[in-house]
Specification:
heterotetramer, A mainly alpha, B mainly alpha, C mainly alpha, D mainly alpha, A: mainly alpha, 2 domains, 12 helices, about 70% helix, C: mainly alpha, two-stranded antiparallel ribbon, about 75% helix, about 5% strand, globular
């Protein structure tokens, strides 16, 4: 296996190198997506299947689609470096030397690093029974360090507002006349693949309590289903969002905060779940989170305030 | 009840922002008022609680560190939250007019600003290295859309550059956090110190990554390149928030880490280097501010310079330097917000903010201009003002530690600040003999002029309130220096 | 009640501050009420100063202490030296206010002008009653800031330029001064102004540092006192309106500098330490150079106000010279000159302003025959000029006499030569003025008579006669001279 | 002398390459790519730290990575929206200084 690991690691490095220095921007993006998949593979090898799933779904999948769509949306002459040439040769050399030194130092440090056995993580594993779920990562995300997760939902919401304020929708409001949408494959994709994705997403959310999966992976897959629908022209952007859509957007963060605040008088601490009710509360919150993540990611992709089914 | 206050200080504004986003424009008049008042109220509650009973700690989820995340309201966090409440409250008053019912994107402004307010408080209270990363990103990702509110066509380049630097800075910080966790097996600020100190080169590299990452976020020279365009281009209320609070959050973290987990690592030479960066920022920022043609860019470059003063704490690292640096943060926050709001009023009235064309402004905009001048007194570090108290403390610290070269920097910085402030006033005082200035806008109503004036007067008042505030801050954390 | 009474210096300061705030808040439209506010403020202040003068005479202690930081207090107090400066400023403020109301009757931006004008006076009061170096510095910088809008008041490029130069000098001086204070605090800790100072015990160990601190402090105050080579701002600042030149540049600002030097020499370092470190003589030399140099440059000026400005450069240094010599008699001469020069020079500036306002006369060669057209004003000009030269029994003579006696007592005979030379130079640049005014015929077509507006003439008459009075009645118990003798006795009695 | 973990080397290389790309590249899209490469280096580091903890993979760094990925993707998505806006606009307009 060491050979496999070595080859995989080398591949990642080469892909990263190509991604950063590729002469053609398009190539750089494609390489980035491939690198994301390779990373997911390597993380699976590193006993982090949750993260492998997340990277594949969000890091490589959704982000990849978004990168490619953005590239396509750019005016032709802006797709290359003409207006933004790389730094001068001297700077490149200097940066090269600096980054080689940086890399060597980090490699040496990582090689020498000996994590403690009484790390916080060991504590987390030891007190898993109190956490309400069997999956350690979900326990950390939704219980031990639920505060981080809650704030992260805020990041997602703000990023969405930022993207909306830039007013550069990727999914135009009018009927999309994209080449390829009349392909016979499209209806198949839209009608069979999407429900499948929805199913997988919901399963992942629920599975997060026991094995690999969770709100983020599941939410990403659900959002991905939406993206597929947009790409198949079964959904399109809308200039305004209905109150329902906005409610779904903030559902996760809002339920999370209100639940947390409710625990202040009940349990004496923010987000301290009452014993016995831990699991149902966490599952409820997880589904809310997944819903909001899915809608947020979908809207981050379309770059519009809302989505609607196009009129036929 | 008291132990709940830190949670409320974070989530009252944060939740209010979320609700604002959901409810949209319908609630624009009253919801922001309610939310701002409530936030100021809980912030004051926290201040009085800490002043009366000392620091407050809250374990999120009831899990103690190292397993869980703690919120710690100590003196430093509390004065920053107080600053945020004061500046935020008055900027909110200004924004009620500037981003009121007349602004089509008012709902976005208030949602972002209220969430940013909560995020800032969360950042100040956080006692966990990774949670700090999350709050840093929250603050950044709220700040950048706010910059866009000036109209994406005008500010998108600045916002994009801001985003690039901010993202890279926080990832660099996160790299340091990763190494720290590898060394210490914990993320709590109070627990990671010994492992970092004993961590040899790994500890040093971890510390370097975190510090450099924060320097990028704090726009410290030479990482300042993203700041002027972003702060200069944003709407006035946003500029005030960004310059007074947002960049300061990163400097705050530098102070917090340096006097906390990194205290055992602080090396004399590195500390001198930090001081040198601060000195370079002071000189470079001031000279650039003097050379700018647009009023808001003058003020923005002034921020680059003023942040440098806080960095002078590191080489001196004595109690007076600590007090001086923090007090500088407070008085700069108040004064800079006043400057930006005043500049915003000029922009509203004239439709431009070209420094050379401010002729005759003193008659029509006398209140805003007076606010600009009064706040300028504090920026120059002249008495009586908060800026003077801070400068005095830093000056004393530099002479007491025998590092007289910082005294020279402090003195020259004050003179350079006088140069760029008076340059603006000079053009504004020039009489326009032939005709009144060609205006495009109305004279800003009192609700826009008063917050600037009040903030400016507060900057002066800070010259007299140092004793209670420094008592609240508490002395230099143990083990530093 | 005693607390309120003891805090008298604060109330005196507040009268001007509150006046300023009211004027700022009321704004431009209140042009009818503004003179009333101004005059009421000035009169109330004068009354309060009278009470305080009486108190100090009886030996009451006035002291207010506002802590800013541990070891950093704002201290306002009133000793005899304070009262000398406070009384002078209060009286002259009233006179100048009346003058300024008349002078600026139809000018724009009067609210701004009078607001900052009151602020300047508040700062001057603060400087006079400052009880330690830091307080002195705070008001010293406040004075700088409040004067700038007055210097640039006209809003033309020339006055803007003057404002820039003014700030460059004064803020630079302030920065140096601050460094000096910070060094002193680091070396010796916080300390109030106290006769003889509290630094003597440091003289052996830190002689070098103390000399450096003295240098910094004197350089800082020397800027405002217009000591050569730090005098460059004063002539340029004459671009300001006449009342500003009169009160601020003849009295408040330059006197603030000179007063600072007096405080530093007497109440921070002390005569004994000055002698020990041998700082007096260099200071006396600088003062002498300034006296001669200022006079020489005054001769070359063709503009009336600029000639007066250079004369100020020269005359203010008498004060520095007096305290630098370190003998009681010279100190009396120097300190009393604070009052004498103030009264005399403000009269001269009032006259210059009246000429400019009434007949548009700015240059000296335009003064031909003005004595016939404006006899009263010109009479006051004559009194002032003769006073400056030091013709007995006018005020200037008293100062010079005591300075001379002091020089003899200190066995510094070269000072006598300086005084004589200065007197001759004064005569050279003032007498031709008087000759033109009285004995040359008016120019063609400019013979129309026209005395100055009563609002301008009144204050001029008042200060002119006061200048004469202080000289004539110098021997009486309530004269500035008697007061100064009290101060100096206290300073020199351990 | 143990053989270095190949993934540790990869993590260091990702950090170095990300840094290099950020400094050298000027095209905003490329810069975002470089930032993400750097971020992946950080995530890889965290995963390695988790893996090396005696007693099984440490869930806390895993949670940190998951949070980090979502933050990185959100920020990048917003960045891409800005890039689209920025590059559609006229040439060479910039309110601030160019270094």
């Amino acid at each position: 296996m060491i050979l496999f690991d070595g080859v995989l690691a080398l591949l990642i490095v080469v892909l990263a190198w190509r991604c950063v220095t590729a002469g053609d921007l398009y190539l750089g993006i494609v390489v980035f997506i491939v690198m994301g998949l390779m990373l997911a593979l390597s993380w699976a090898r590193l006993d982090a299947p949750d993260l492998a799933l997340a990277e594949a779904a969000i890091g490589a999948g959704l982000l990849g689609v978004l990168l490619l769509s953005t590239w396509r949306a750019l005016p032709g002459h802006r797709r290359q470096d003409r207006d933004h040439p790389p730094a001068r040769k001297a700077v490149r050399w200097l940066a090269g030397v600096a980054s080689v030194a940086f890399g060597l130092v980090m490699a040496a440090l990582l090689h020498a690093l000996q994590p403690d056995e009484d790390a916080a993580g060991a504590l987390a594993l030891g007190r898993l029974t109190e956490a309400g779920v069997e999956q350690p990562v979900t326990a950390v995300l939704l219980n031990f360090r639920s505060y981080d997760t809650l704030l992260e939902m805020g990041v997602l919401l703000m990023a969405l507002i930022g993207a909306l304020l830039a007013r550069t929708p990727l999914a135009p409001y009018g009927a999309a006349t994209d080449d390829g949408t009349d392909s016979p494959l499209i209806p198949v994709l839209a009608t069979t693949f999407t429900p499948l994705l929805l199913l997988v997403g919901a399963f992942l959310v629920w599975a997060g309590a026991y094995g690999p999966g969770g709100a983020f992976q599941g939410g990403a897959v659900l959002g991905g289903a939406g993206v597929v629908l947009v790409l198949c022209n079964r959904l399109q952007g809308a200039p305004e969002a209905g109150i329902l859509l906005r409610l779904l957007l903030v559902l996760g963060v809002k339920v999370f905060i209100l639940a947390g605040l409710l625990m202040l008088p009940l349990e004496g601490a923010f987000m301290a779940y009452p014993p016995g009710l831990t699991y149902p509360i966490m599952i409820a919150i997880e589904f809310c989170l997944a819903t909001s993540i899915a809608v947020s990611l979908l809207l981050l992709f379309t770059g519009t305030h809302g989505v609607r089914v196009p009129e036929r | 009840m008291t132990e709940w206050v830190p949670v409320l200080v974070v989530f009252v504004p944060f939740l209010a922002g979320v609700v604002q986003f959901m409810a949209g424009r319908r609630v624009i008049a009253w919801w922001p008022v309610l939310a701002s008042v409530a936030t100021v109220a809980v912030s004051l509650w926290l201040t009085f609680a800490v002043a009366a009973g000392g620091g407050i700690e809250h374990f999120m989820g009831g899990w103690q560190p190292p397993l869980g995340i703690a919120l710690r309201a100590d003196g430093l966090a509390t004065v920053m939250i107080l600053l945020t409440a004061v500046v935020g409250g008055l900027v909110s008053v200004y924004a009620l007019e500037a981003h009121g019912t007349g602004d089509p994107r008012a709902s976005h402004f208030w949602a972002l600003w209220l969430m940013l307010w909560g995020s800032l408080n969360a950042l100040f209270l956080s006692a966990d290295l990774f949670n700090i990363y999350v709050t840093l990103e929250l603050v950044t990702l709220a700040a950048i859309p706010l910059v866009l509110l000036a109209g994406p066509e005008k500010t998108v380049t600045a916002a994009l550059r801001y985003l690039q630097f901010a993202l890279f800075g926080s990832l660099l910080y996160l790299a340091g956090v990763a190494l720290t966790y590898g060394l210490a097996g914990s993320l709590d600020l109070a627990l990671v110190g010994p492992a970092l100190t004993d961590g040899g080169i790994t500890g040093a590299v971890a510390a370097t990554c975190m510090v450099v990452g924060l320097l990028v976020k704090a726009a410290v020279f030479p990482f300042h390149v993203w700041l002027p365009a972003a702060h200069g281009g944003a709407p006035a209320a946003v500029s005030a928030i960004l310059s007074a609070l947002v960049v300061k959050a990163a400097v705050y973290l530098l102070l917090r880490l340096w006097t906390g987990p990194l205290a055992g690592l602080a090396d004399g030479l590195v500390a001198q280097l930090m001081g040198a960066l601060g000195a370079a920022a002071i000189l470079y920022g001031s000279i650039q501010a003097f050379r700018q043609e647009r009023l808001k860019l003058v003020v923005a470059y002034s921020t680059v310079a003023q942040l440098g003063y806080m960095l002078l704490f590191f080489p001196m690292a004595v109690a007076q330097a600590w007090e001086g640096a923090v007090y500088h943060g407070l008085s700069h926050g108040v004064a800079k917000a006043a400057l930006f709001l005043a500049a915003g009023n000029v922009l509203v009235y004239l439709g431009h903010d070209r420094v050379r064309d401010l002729k005759g402004l003193d008659r029509s905009l006398s209140v805003s201009l007076l606010a600009f001048g009064i706040a300028g007194v504090s920026i120059m570090g002249l008495p009586p003002s908060g800026g003077f108290i801070a400068k005095w403390l830093l000056l004393r610290a530099s002479l007491e530690t025998g590092q007289w070269w910082w005294a020279v920097v402090l003195i020259s910085g004050g003179l350079l600040a006088a140069a760029y402030i008076f340059r603006v006033l000079r053009y504004a005082f020039l009489q326009a003999p032939d005709r009144p200035p060609a205006t495009t806008g109305p004279i800003p109503p009192p609700i826009m002029a008063l917050p600037a004036t009040l903030l400016a007067l507060l900057a002066i008042a800070l010259g007299f309130t140092a004793a209670p505030l420094l008592a609240l801050l508490g002395g230099l954390p143990e083990g530093t220096g | 009640m005693t607390g309120i009474y003891e805090a008298m210096p604060l109330w005196v300061l507040m009268t001007s501050l509150v006046t300023a705030l009211i004027i700022f808040t009321a704004g431009e439209p209140w042009h009818r009420l503004r003179p009333v506010i101004n005059l009421v403020g000035a009169s109330v202040k004068l009354a309060l100063v009278g009470v305080m003068l009486w108190g100090v005479q009886l030996g009451h202690a006035f002291m207010v202490r506002i802590p800013l930081l541990p070891g950093l207090d704002i201290v306002l107090h009133a000793d005899a030296l304070t009262m000398l400066f406070v009384t002078l400023s209060a009286i002259l403020w009233l006179a100048t206010t009346i003058y300024a109301i008349a002078y600026l009757e139809h000018a724009p931006n009067r609210a701004r002008f009078f607001g900052f004008f009151s602020l300047c006076v508040a700062a001057t009061m603060g400087i006079a009653s400052a009880g330690n170096l830091l307080t002195f510095f705070i008001f010293y910088e406040m004075l700088t800031l409040a004067t700038w809008p007055l210097v640039v008041h006209r809003g033309v490029p020339k006055s803007m330029n003057a404002g820039r130069i003014y700030l460059q000098y004064t803020l630079g001086g302030g920065a140096v001064f601050l460094l000096g204070i910070a060094l002193l605090y680091t070396l010796a800790g916080p300390s109030d102004f106290i006769a003889g100072g509290e630094l003597l015990h440091l003289a052996d160990e830190h002689a070098g540092a103390l000399t450096l601190i003295f240098l910094l402090l004197v350089a800082g105050t020397g800027v405002k006192a217009a000591l050569v080579p730090l005098h460059g701002w004063l002539p340029v600042a004459m671009a300001a309106p006449a009342p500003v030149s009169a009160l601020l540049h003849a009295v408040a600002v330059v006197k603030a500098g000179a007063f600072g030097i007096v405080r530093i020499v007497y109440d921070v370092f002390g005569i004994e330490l000055m002698a020990l470190l041998d700082l007096g003589t260099p200071l006396a030399v600088i003062a002498s150079v300034t006296i001669i140099y200022g006079s020489l440059l005054a001769i070359r000026q063709t503009d009336l106000k600029r000639r007066l400005a250079y004369s100020t450069v020269s005359q203010v240094s008498y004060i520095t010279l007096g305290v630098a010599l370190g003998s009681p008699l010279a100190s009396i001469g120097g300190l009393v000159h604070l009052v004498h020069q103030g009264l005399t020079k403000i009269t001269l500036f009032f006259c210059a302003g009246a000429y400019a306002e009434t007949h548009g006369i700015h240059r000296i060669d335009e003064l031909d025959g003005i004595g016939r057209r404006m006899p009263w004003t010109t009479a006051m000009l004559t009194l002032g000029a003769l006073g400056m030269i030091g013709v007995p029994p006018l005020a200037g003579f008293v100062s010079k006499w005591y300075l001379g006696l002091g020089a003899v007592a200190a066995e510094q005979y070269w000072i006598i030569a300086v005084l004589l030379a200065s007197t001759v130079l004064n005569a050279i640049y003032f007498l031709p003025l008087l000759h033109r005014a009285w004995f040359r015929p008016p120019r063609q077509g400019e013979a129309d008579p026209g005395e100055a507006h009563p609002g301008l003439l009144g204050p001029t008459l008042f200060t002119g006669l006061a200048a004469v009075g202080t000289g004539l009645f110098a021997g009486f118990g309530w004269s500035p001279l008697a007061w100064v003798e009290v101060i100096v006795t206290r300073e020199y009695t351990p | 002398m143990t053989l270095p973990d190949p993934f540790a080397l990869a993590a260091a290389a990702l950090l170095a390459l990300g840094f290099y790309g950020f400094v050298v590249q000027r095209h905003p899209l490329r810069r975002l790519l470089a930032i993400n490469v750097f971020g992946n280096g950080v995530f890889m580091t965290l995963i390695l730290v988790a893996r090396w903890m005696p007693g099984g993979p440490d869930p806390i760094p895993h949670a940190m990575v998951l949070t980090g990925i979502v933050i990185a993707v959100s920020a990048t998505a917003m960045g891409l929206a800005l890039v689209r806006r920025d590059l559609r606009q006229g040439d060479g307009k910039d309110g601030g200084d160019r270094d």
